[in-house]
Amino acid sequence: MKAKMLFTLTLCLSFLFVNTIDAATTFHSPVGTYDFEVTDIPDQPDVKGTMVVSKVDGKIKVIFDSSAGEIELADAKLDGHKLTGKIDVQGIVLKLSGKFTDSGFEGQWNSEFGALPITASKK
Length: 123
What we know:
With 123 residues, this protein is α+β, with helices and mostly antiparallel strands. The chain has one helix spanning 2-25, and strands spanning 32-38, 47-56, 59-66, 69-72, 74-79, 82-89, 92-100, 104-111, 114-122.
């Protein structure tokens, strides 16, 4: 009797533990289209545009499109929720680091001149 109860209790706890892990690790795919905004650019207006996130041959691909044109994020890496990569704008390298959230993306562009915040909302 005790062995049967212990087995039942162990089985129930195992099921509960597995479901808790699954719920905690659920992450919605970042693939999609986002409206982005980069703010706090010294002596310049904010930059707004579209960020398209896709997967090509199993690798993450991110393209930013704004009034300044279209540019692809080089060395794009997705590690869980975290996205990193870089772009070259007129000889200035901007390194992106940020994370995807349930509703979009939050991060910053880092350069030798400082950090610029970027936010994006998934369409």
